[in-house]
Design brief:
The chain is mainly alpha-helical. Helix content is about 45%, strand content about 10%. The longest helix is centred in the middle third of the chain and has 15 residues.
Length: about 110
Amino acid sequence: MRKMINVFYGRENLNKEEFIYKRIFEGNKRSIVIVPDQYGLEAEKAALKYASLYRHDKSKKTTPQNMPSPKTSLINVEIKTFSRLMHDVFNELGGLNTISWETCRSSRDI
């Protein structure tokens, strides 16, 4: 299985967001989008918006408020913030499973 990392960057006035999500949804492959911590919710909203536009199914209906239809989902796309990615990596490698001496000592004193 071939895995690839794509890094997209550009000037502020370019529509990078649409370009990225179009490639993700037209490719229909499992993807992880890494965004800054403060942009996590906005990135999920944008992903849902573009999912309704670029999915292969013919039910590309949107509601009058320009929101995706209830059938739209992000099955193959994960939106991860840097802190969530770090948490997942440490969880996978066992970095967060260690207990410090200070934690043990303070719980014994209670």
